[in-house]
Design a protein that fits this description.
The chain has about 220 residues and is an all-alpha fold. The protein contains twelve helices and no strands.
Length: about 220
């Protein structure tokens, strides 16, 4: 079964139940966004020291006309990997949300992580799962990995271990180093569970809710 079809078959629980999927940004629009002069100039300036204001000005100029790449870059600059001020984290979520609404996968995963960690938005696992799923539908490796973890433990979505593992494997096959590391971690955790004879009734060594929660939180922080 195709991974995209597998993802489409899984429905989120909670607020996202009846929400329509978002069409991916077209390749033509994405290329235009990436090739915007402001984006190219900001990339050049980022290699030098002391040009933060100039970079912000360029990105804001591009963001004002709806450039999703600029919106995500601004979101990342405000978030500072989750260490920004409360006001900056809220601003980052707004930037991510605007780009995610355009179907830009990096924005969808970033928005999902903000909801999963409660950074700039109220912690909402169902909302996080919804946005992870949108990126996973585009076969985005990060989206596949994060949505796979959500499915693995039923985090904001109906639990489906088989589909969760399939998505994590699909990300690992790209290859995605984080997904590959996670697969090894899951294998070791299951072996440890089996060794302690804590085997579920279906003959598989289930990961505990606390283990899944730790895995989902750690992945959202480091990816």
């Amino acid at each position: 079964m195709l991974i995209a079809a597998s993802v489409a078959a899984c429905t989120t629980a909670g607020p996202g139940n009846d929400r329509a999927d978002i069409s991916p940004i077209s390749q033509a629009a994405l290329h235009a966004a990436q090739d915007a002069p402001e984006i190219k100039q900001a990339a050049i300036l980022s290699k030098t020291v002391g040009n933060h204001k100039a970079i912000d000005d360029l990105l804001r100029k591009a963001a004002d006309i709806g450039n999703p790449v600029a919106l995500v870059d601004l979101g990342d600059r405000h978030s500072m990997n989750g260490t920004g001020s409360p006001e900056d984290l809220v601003a980052a979520v707004d930037f991510y949300r605007r780009a995610a609404a355009m179907g830009y996968a990096p924005a969808e995963t970033a928005l999902g992580k903000a909801y999963r960690l409660g950074e700039g938005a109220a912690l909402d696992k169902a909302e996080a799962a919804y946005w992870y799923r949108q990126a996973a539908l585009q076969k985005d490796a990060t989206g596949q990995l994060l949505y796979g973890i959500a499915l693995l433990g039923g985090e904001g979505v109906t639990k489906d271990e088989a589909q969760g593992m399939a998505l994590i494997q699909a990300a690992a096959d790209k290859p995605d180093v984080m997904a590959q590391m996670l697969l090894m971690t899951i294998t070791m955790m299951r072996q440890a569970t089996a060794a302690s004879s804590a085997v579920s009734s279906n003959g598989k060594e289930d990961l505990s809710p606390s283990e899944i929660d730790h895995m989902a939180t750690t992945a959202a922080k480091v990816i």
